[in-house]
């Protein structure tokens, strides 16, 4: 896209701040996904140190991650953040100039779990029943797509706006008939609270996508630093993609909400290779996903301005990084090159 | 003379705040994405009123608040008095009361959902819990501080407990109890909004939370101001009550 | 403790009465837990809670989270309570300050904390400082209110005595107004204590994650680990109880001049 | 002097009840680290319908004694009975005028007095009438709606007297009821108190520092001394009521009592040296 | 009777200052909807070092008057001067013993008295000595650490007297200072007050209901009447100090004052009918 031609900063910033969804593990924050791998590898910190730049990680809890990161971007307190499609788009639409600079793989699965004892096999069976979802969270889009495909509308259900914690309690207590949520649904199923009747495994294209987002001002002023950060994430993705690192990665991930067994099942039966989960490549699928999100949020008046992908997605860093690191062709996706359409 | 200064000061201080706010945003000292200007808030205000959203959210919240707050505060008053007046009640319930009043009601939500479901009763119970404790504590603590001589006069005339409470203890402790009621209103608001975040489709809290999720800080500010103004109004009401109850001091 | 120092009278078993409600509650709890089914999810068995307590304790996780929440609550109480007392004093002693400050104070007080989050996040980041500010704010409100009320209720007949002996402003405050307001100020402190705990837990959910009972509880809920939630509740309650007890002792000592019912 | 039964005093109706008996009362306060013996082996028998005056030095335990009889304090040794029944807690049968007025600052004069009638099973109108009558009795007409802080010291004291009279207790305990009153009001209220006492046949125990008053009203005057509080002297006043204040008998008895009261081993010395004062 | 200058009374040192003058004082309270005229055209000149006693019926405005002189209330018409200077606000030169003791409940007896010395520029030791001396003066040795609620009524009143004496004001205003004291303590403290007055040459204005006391101590006794409060009579007592309480002059003056005090158009009637009482 066209960006204002601003000169690179003469001086490097003192710190680079990366925010990411995190969990508390043994009293300390553990980051979600690749961020923790980046930390563990220590490469980024070392590279930045050589340039006299400190690396600062900002852990944000999942429940308020979106708003916190958006506010941090707006206040220029953070430079990069790994988070979801929906909140990032909201920020962009609200005038916070950020853009997606890598993908974080195929995205997250969403699940539909129904309470014990309810004879429902599909979403259609839930018509007129109560369905809990946390409004405004990224997986609402997935639900919208599912409903759309079946010719259903939110108004066909008795919708309860519940946060996940409350939703699981209500499900267990039989106070709602179904919950639409993320992979914790597997855990709930294991605990006997209900049965999963649908997931994005049947429609991988509806998965919620996450990626690394950056403040545009920062990337234009510090392209080299940005490249370093992106390269670190690519290296982390490469590490995680190695089948021999699978167990180690799952162990890291299990420090979040879900035990390894659940993660295994979340990752299972998806076809393709293990490494597909981690591809940083921004491909056309990624771009069209954001087009969809943009359209949906605008049509549903969740945002006031429609965001054009070309202003919002910048594949140049990741493309250059893959090149620099000699990883061209390692992941199967076809990178978008040139301006995003 | 004096009342004039009072009026001037109490009107000018909020006004000054408003002017500073407008100035800060006009000079773009902070990014407009986060510190929205008063004019933007007024615009958002117009928007949510025009769509009827504000009215809907507000009436939902106020209904919940009215139910939960009045139940919680009045039960709190009774319980606090009982705790202060009866040794037995104090011995049996005192420790539990002191421990329980420190625990955020939000921590009990899973259990409450199990017991009460997720409909209005549940929300009202949560607010009632939040309203209960400040009033109970204020009543307990200030009745404990009532001079012995008042109890002696009352006991001399063998005033029944309701006379003791209504004619002696409440007047003697009204400033502190009302302060407790005012705090309990604050806390009810807080918990109401929190509860609406967790389990609701409507209400001021939901409006603010959605505003935040959707990065509409102008709408969040509308919520802030509406909550502040309503809280202030209710608070004024209590102050008037207090002035009425204390007229024996100045009459 | 030797037999000599063990004063048997001090061990009158009346305090055992205080155990009745918690014990009854636990019995009911275990009964519910034993029902199984949906109940088993919300009412974990006490054995499980005990096990969680042991696990969390031995992993050091509990101490870390607990210590960080306790530190936050106490420093918030100290800072918010301290500033609140000062502001309450200023409002209680000076009419113009009261007139100027009370509309702002009384409306800000009513704004749900959530409303401030974006602004506080913007100005102070989303780290420990912001958390501390919110916690301190929650202690600030009650202390202002009760300090102010306490000072306003000081009897004119006692102030007259100070005038007769020509006490200056400071002397009047320190010798008359402050002691007269102390009972009310202590009530404010008791209120503030609860508010700090509640906001400590709350704010750990709302800002950057890290050590803390609130964060731990939040995550445990998502993981459907009710046993961990209960251990956290237990610690919040017991700590509140203990701090309350200490402040009570202090107040009884400081307010020993009152002739109140035993 | 022999005791003249009240029934022989003209105009005095005596009830068969209202006998107060104190036996071996011991009372102490924990005062800092030491124990303060306030009453020691205190015994006194008051006949039904008798009027007993108590005089004694400041701090000798008079108020403490009345509090015990009123049932406001039960941490003492010994027994106190009313008509043979052990006194436990307060009762409407035993009224008390406190030394300090103890009006409730948030109640009007009227409401303060009406409080005493809370438990009286009579109509609202009758209550209002009683209250109004007693306000008039103590000369406070026109101040019905006044709050205590709007009353003078003597007016507040009178209000407290009205409050204690309004529900006609069988035994009335009065702690310096007329201390803050001017001579005229005092004489008037002494007369009223006597009139009520004669008409109701109630038992009265009154603390006063005015020996004349003690003699004018009392069937008996009890003289106390301090450290520990005890009875050192009892004077029977065998004169019919109402009495002639100028009676030589009363004068003689007054001298006797004053002699007893001033017969103290050591009075505090003048120890204050005056350090300022420009004319020293 | 001619006025005998104080300087001619043996033992009486008179300061050149301490003249209190009240001219045309009018004071009213807003009482409910009506105005209550409490003082009307009240004028009084007090010489330096004079002892003026004020007697008058309850509620006639005596306490109000002292509050005005003390400078606690400046909402009145007329002028009050001390040594020709208009009185504005309170001053350590004008001390006041309140009718109720007004000790601070949170201070020990000692601290309550020391409060009066807060602004006296003397050493800590000297302060402690003064406080201890005055506690002894009023006979409260041993109660230094007592809180007010641990004192008897008379003890609290004595503590209040000690507090007012301890900083030796030029003008001391006393509102029924001995009202709650027994005869012996009262005589003792009257003597002490007189001794201090004589030694310091201060001006004293004392309200009392005890006419004998007014005459025993006062150079002049001012008699007030109520509605509105005004001076109806002034009696000069031209006897040297200390006086003989049995002096026939004092007895004659007492009768004169009592006659004046009881000379009121209407005394409250006995209006209380006794509705209960089993023997009616
Ligand atoms: N704050 C007030 N508001 C209204 N009226 C008042 C107030 N203070 C005093 N009064 C009235 O003023 C009158 C005089 O009161 P004051 O206390 O001066 O009487 P006093 O002469 O000292 O009587 P006493 O001997 O009973 O103490 C009384 O009628 C009283 O009701
Ligand atoms: N609550 C208390 N704690 C400690 N000591 C007390 C308490 N109440 C009274 N006393 C002490 O008991 C003694 C008797 O007090 P009491 O009030 O009975 O005296 P009194 O005879 O009524 O004196 P007065 O004539 O001065 O009213 C005093 O020495 C007093 O200090
Ligand atoms: O209990 N509260 O969380 O207010
Ligand atoms: Mg007494
Ligand atoms: Mg008076």
From TrEMBL, chain B:
Residues 58-238 form the ABC transmembrane type-1 domain. It is found in: Cell membrane. GO terms for cellular component: plasma membrane. Keywords: Cell membrane, Membrane, Transmembrane, Transmembrane helix, Transport. It comes from the Bacteria. Probably part of an ABC transporter complex. Probably responsible for the translocation of the substrate across the membrane. This is ABC transporter permease.
From TrEMBL, chain C:
Keywords: Cell membrane, Membrane, Transmembrane, Transmembrane helix, Transport. Residues 66-247 form the ABC transmembrane type-1 domain. The chain crosses the membrane at residues 12-29, 74-93, 114-141, 185-207, 228-247. One of its GO terms (cellular component) is plasma membrane. GO terms for biological process: transmembrane transport. The keyword Transport applies. InterPro entries: MetI-like, MetI-like_sf. PANTHER family: ALIPHATIC SULFONATES TRANSPORT PERMEASE PROTEIN SSUC-RELATED, ALKANE SULFONATE ABC TRANSPORTER-RELATED, MEMBRANE SUBUNIT. This is ABC transporter permease. It comes from Asticcacaulis endophyticus. The lineage of its organism: Bacteria, Pseudomonadati, Pseudomonadota, Alphaproteobacteria, Caulobacterales.
UniProtKB/TrEMBL annotation, chains D, E:
It holds the Pfam family ABC_tran. Keywords: ATP-binding, Nucleotide-binding, Transport. Gene3D superfamilies: P-loop containing nucleotide triphosphate hydrolases. GO terms for molecular function: ATP binding; ATP hydrolysis activity. The keyword Chloroplast does not apply. SMART domains: AAA. Residues 20-251 form the ABC transporter domain. InterPro entries: AAA+_ATPase, ABC_transporter-like_ATP-bd, ABC_transporter-like_CS, ABC_transporter_ATP-bind, P-loop_NTPase. Belongs to the ABC transporter superfamily. This is Sulfonate ABC transporter ATP-binding protein. It comes from Asticcacaulis endophyticus. The lineage of its organism: Bacteria, Pseudomonadati, Pseudomonadota, Alphaproteobacteria, Caulobacterales.
């Amino acid at each position: 896209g066209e960006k204002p031609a601003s000169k690179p900063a003469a001086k490097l910033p003192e710190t680079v701040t990366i925010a990411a969804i995190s969990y508390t593990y043994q009293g300390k924050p553990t980051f979600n996904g690749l961020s923790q791998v980046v930390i563990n590898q220590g490469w980024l910190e070392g590279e930045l140190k050589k340039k006299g730049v400190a690396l600062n990680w900002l852990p944000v809890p999942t429940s308020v991650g979106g708003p916190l990161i958006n506010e941090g971007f707006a206040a220029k307190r953070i430079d990069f953040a790994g988070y979801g499609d929906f909140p990032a788009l909201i920020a962009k639409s609200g005038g916070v100039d950020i853009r997606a600079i890598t993908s974080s793989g195929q995205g997250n699965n969403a699940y539909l779990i129904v309470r014990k004892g309810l004879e429902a096999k599909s979403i259609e069976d839930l018509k007129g029943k109560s369905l809990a979802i946390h409004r405004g969270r990224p997986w609402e889009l997935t639900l919208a797509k599912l409903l759309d495909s079946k010719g259903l509308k939110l108004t066909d259900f008795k919708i309860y706006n519940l946060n996940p914690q409350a939703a699981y309690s209500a499900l267990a207590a039989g106070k709602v008939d179904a919950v639409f949520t993320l992979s914790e649904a597997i855990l709930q199923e294991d605990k006997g609270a209900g049965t999963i009747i649908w997931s994005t495994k049947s429609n991988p294209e509806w998965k919620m996508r996450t990626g690394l987002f950056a403040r545009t001002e920062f990337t234009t002023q510090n392209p080299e630093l940005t490249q370093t950060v992106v390269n670190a994430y690519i290296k982390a993705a490469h590490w995680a993609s190695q089948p021999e690192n699978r167990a180690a990665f799952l162990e890291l991930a299990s420090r979040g909400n879900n035990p390894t067994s659940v993660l295994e099942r979340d990752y299972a039966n998806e076809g393709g290779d293990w490494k597909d989960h981690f591809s940083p490549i921004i491909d056309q699928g990624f771009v069209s996903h954001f087009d969809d999100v943009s359209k949906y949020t605008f049509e549903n008046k969740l945002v006031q301005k429609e965001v054009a992908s070309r202003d919002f997605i910048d594949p140049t860093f990741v493309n250059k990084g893959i090149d620099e690191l000699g990883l061209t062709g390692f992941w199967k996706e076809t990178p978008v090159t040139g301006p995003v359409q | 003379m004096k009342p004039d200064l009072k009026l001037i000061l109490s009107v000018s201080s909020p006004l000054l705040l408003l002017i500073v706010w407008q100035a800060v945003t006009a000079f773009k000292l902070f990014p407009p994405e986060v510190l929205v200007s008063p004019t933007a808030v007024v615009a958002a205000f117009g928007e949510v009123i025009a769509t009827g959203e504000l009215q809907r959210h507000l009436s939902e919240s106020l209904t919940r608040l009215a139910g939960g707050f009045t139940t919680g505060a009045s039960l709190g008053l009774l319980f606090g008095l009982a705790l202060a007046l009866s040794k037995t009640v104090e011995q049996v319930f005192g420790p539990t009361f002191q421990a329980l009043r420190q625990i955020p009601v939000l921590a009990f939500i899973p259990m409450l959902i199990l017991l009460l479901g997720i409909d209005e009763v549940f929300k009202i119970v949560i607010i009632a819990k939040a309203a209960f404790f400040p009033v109970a504590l204020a009543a307990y603590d200030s009745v404990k501080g009532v001079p012995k001589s008042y109890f002696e006069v009352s006991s001399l005339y063998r005033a029944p407990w309701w006379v003791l409470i209504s004619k002696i203890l409440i007047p003697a402790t009204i400033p502190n109890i009302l302060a407790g009621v005012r705090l309990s209103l604050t806390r009810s608001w807080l918990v109401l909004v929190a509860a609406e975040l967790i389990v609701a489709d409507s209400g001021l809290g939901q409006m603010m939370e959605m505003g935040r999720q959707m990065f509409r800080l102008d709408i969040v500010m509308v919520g802030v101001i509406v909550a502040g103004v309503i809280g202030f109004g209710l608070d004024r009401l209590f102050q008037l009550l207090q002035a009425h109850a204390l007229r024996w001091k100045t009459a | 403790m030797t037999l000599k120092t063990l004063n048997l009278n001090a061990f009158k078993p009346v305090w055992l009465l205080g155990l009745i409600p918690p014990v009854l509650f636990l019995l009911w709890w275990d009964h519910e837990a034993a029902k199984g089914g949906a109940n088993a999810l919300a009412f974990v068995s006490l054995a499980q809670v005990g096990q969680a307590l042991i696990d969390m304790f031995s992993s050091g996780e509990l101490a870390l989270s607990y210590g960080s929440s306790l530190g936050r609550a106490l420093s918030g109480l100290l800072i918010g309570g301290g500033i609140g007392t000062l502001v309450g004093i200023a409002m209680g002693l000076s009419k113009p300050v009261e007139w100027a400050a009370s509309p702002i104070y009384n409306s800000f007080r009513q704004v749900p904390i959530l409303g401030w989050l974006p602004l506080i996040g913007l100005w102070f980041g989303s780290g420990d400082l912001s958390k501390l500010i919110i916690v301190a704010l929650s202690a600030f409100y009650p202390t202002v209110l009760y300090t102010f009320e306490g000072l306003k209720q000081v009897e004119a007949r006692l102030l007259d005595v100070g005038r007769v002996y020509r006490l200056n402003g400071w002397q009047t405050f320190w010798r008359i107004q402050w002691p007269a307001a102390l009972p009310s100020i202590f009530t404010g402190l008791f209120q503030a204590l609860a508010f700090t705990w509640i906001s400590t837990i709350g704010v750990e959910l709302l800002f950057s994650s890290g050590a803390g009972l609130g964060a731990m509880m939040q995550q445990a809920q998502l993981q459907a680990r009710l046993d961990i939630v209960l251990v956290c509740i237990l610690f919040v309650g017991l700590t509140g109880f203990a701090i309350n007890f200490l402040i009570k002792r202090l107040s009884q000592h400081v307010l020993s001049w009152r002739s109140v019912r035993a | 002097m022999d005791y003249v039964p009240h029934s022989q005093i003209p105009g005095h109706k005596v009830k068969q009840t209202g006998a107060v008996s104190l036996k071996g009362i011991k009372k102490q306060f924990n005062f800092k680290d030491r124990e303060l013996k306030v009453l020691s082996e205190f015994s006194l028998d008051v006949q039904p319908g008798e009027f007993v005056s108590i005089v004694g030095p400041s701090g000798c335990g008079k108020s403490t004694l009345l509090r015990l009889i009123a049932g406001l304090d039960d941490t003492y040794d010994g027994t106190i009975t009313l008509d043979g029944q052990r006194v436990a807690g307060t009762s409407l049968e035993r009224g008390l005028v406190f030394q300090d007025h103890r009006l409730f600052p948030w109640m009007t004069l009227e409401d303060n007095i009406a409080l005493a009638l809370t438990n009286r099973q009579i109509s609202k109108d009758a209550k209002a009438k009683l209250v109004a009558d007693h306000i008039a009795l103590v000369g406070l007409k026109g101040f019905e709606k006044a709050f205590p802080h709007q009353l003078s010291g003597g007016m507040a004291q009178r209000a407290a007297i009205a409050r204690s009279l309004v529900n006609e207790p069988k035994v009335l305990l009065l702690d310096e009821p007329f201390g803050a009153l001017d001579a005229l009001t005092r004489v008037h209220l002494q007369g009223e108190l006597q009139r009520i006492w004669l008409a109701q046949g109630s038992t009265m125990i009154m603390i006063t520092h005015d020996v004349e008053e003690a003699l004018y009203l009392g069937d008996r005057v009890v003289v106390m001394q301090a450290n520990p509080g005890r009875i050192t002297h009892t004077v029977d006043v065998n004169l019919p009521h109402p009495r002639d204040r100028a009676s030589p008998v009363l004068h003689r008895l007054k001298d006797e009592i004053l002699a007893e009261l001033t017969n103290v081993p050591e009075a505090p010395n003048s120890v204050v040296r005056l350090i300022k004062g420009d004319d020293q």
